[in-house]
Amino acid sequence: MSFDYDLFVIGAGSGGVRAARMSAKYGARVAVAEEFRVGGTCVIRGCVPKKLFVYASHFSEAFEEAAGFGWQVGDPKFDWSTLLANKDAEIDRLNAIYIANLEASGVEILPHRAEIIDAQTVRIDGREVSAERILIAVGATPFVPQIPGRDYAITSNEAFHIDALPPAITVVGGGYIAVEFAGIFNGLGVETTLVYRGEEILRGFDDEVRRHVHAEIAKKGVNVKTQTDISEIALSGNGYQLTFSDGSHAQTGLVMYATGRVAKTDGLGLAAAGVETGDDGHIPVDAYSQTNVPSIYAVGDVTARAQLTPVAIREGAAFAETVYNNNPSAVDHSMIPTAVFSQPPIGTVGMTEEEAREATQAADGVDVYASVFRPMKHTLSGSDEKTLMKLIVCRATDKVLGLHIVGPDSGEMIQAFGVAVTMGATKAQFDATIAVHPTAAEELVTFKEPRS
Asked: What does residue 246 show for φ and ψ, rounded to 5 degrees?
């Protein structure tokens, strides 16, 4: 049977673009459908603009800390519109690069919404096209619970485009996106409250890391309210009145929800093609990203395996290797180095202390090395911010099971340490590595005695 394309990709985000480019490189005739902009969540409305905002929010502290090093900064002023304009220019630049790279690879870009008709047919721009294989890479979208007044709230999508900074904001959620945006707004001078219904923020991270970050962001001025939730949002003057689950009330200038993301599969036509989905809309796949329909695959956030850009990219590459290069490749999701650009930031790889103790089935099967200290910079800056370094080691094998950092440059550090932990490095090998002095990272190769 003859097809219009060998591969039709729906969604031009990180995973879809990588799969499309590599598949075309291996000789496939590839088209990509994208109804918004090429680049996906990360480039357009996610990690890239968010980190630019994180950089912007750091300067308020940097100006204060400069005095301890002899600098007289004066009275700094911040202009939100300038940041927005410069951010937009950078996103435009990256969007153009993504388009150019796809075109250079021989991929046809179709700037329209696509809908699956059957296992090998897609409707786009009023016409039907056929493809031997279809790859779904549509990503996920922010979730906002069904409460009265939910339409007044913004999400991370809109946070990059608000006209002006409010005097106060309430960020709802306890995951990494909520914590990052709380730090951004707080650093930009907005009175910030973080509301989370659980007992402690950053569920899924090491418990000691969670407590440490909570304490540090609170010291910086973020009002953290745990074990509570918003039950209603109502207009009130120039802002909003919030009603909490315990019946109390508060005023705020803006409400932002960061309470998770759900697969963006509504209206995609999955049922017509016989593609199974989970209760929340995500698409289950096997180790090679294949759905229950043999001709249809899915990668990235839409599969709910790990909603991280580098994971989507790796999944897209593995798909192309498997299908178009005769090189079956499965992504290992068990060891994912991760950075959270909170303030202070987090770098983590491997098991949490809690997971390691459970995995070894005995409390005495794990050695924990940890240190909390004031970074060298802050001996003069006057800041009371503390860094946390933590190693989790299997006592029987000496293998490093987990490594966790909270402090400046932890994202950069975790990329390098992630290689060692992924390779199965032992504590003895860490000890044999000569320390780089004076750095914070040297703490991780100079631990002597376990805490437990």
From this structure: -90, 5
CB 69 within 8 A of CB 380: yes
CATH level 2 (architecture), domain 344-445: 2-Layer Sandwich (3.30)
CA–CA distance from 333 to each of 209, 346, 349, 413 (Å)?
21, 19, 12, 20
pTM of this structure: 0.94
437 is catalytic: yes
Q: Residue 14's CB: how many other CB atoms inside 10 A?
A: 30
Establish whether domains 5-140+262-324 and 344-445 are of one fold: no
Give me the catalytic one of 161, 212, 378, 437: 437
Pair 391, 451: CB distance under 8 Å: no
> Count of CB atoms within 10 A of residue 383's CB?
17
Cα(243)–Cα(416) distance, rounded to whole angstroms? 45
Q: What is the pLDDT along the chain (452 residues), one digit of tens a residue?
A: 799 999 999 999 999 999 999 999 999 999 999 988 888 888 888 899 999 999 999 999 999 999 999 999 888 999 999 999 999 999 999 999 999 999 999 999 999 999 999 999 999 999 999 999 999 999 999 999 999 999 999 999 999 999 999 999 999 999 999 999 999 999 999 999 999 999 999 999 999 999 999 999 999 999 999 999 999 999 998 899 999 999 999 999 999 999 999 999 999 999 999 999 998 889 999 999 999 999 999 999 999 898 889 999 999 999 999 999 999 999 999 999 999 999 999 999 999 999 999 987 765 699 999 999 999 999 999 899 999 999 999 999 999 999 999 999 999 999 999 999 999 999 999 999 999 999 999 999 999 999 86
The residue ranges of every structural domain in the chain are 5-140+262-324, 150-259, 344-445
Domain 5-140+262-324, classified CATH 3.50.50.60, yes or no:
yes
Domain 150-259 has CATH 3.30.390.10: no
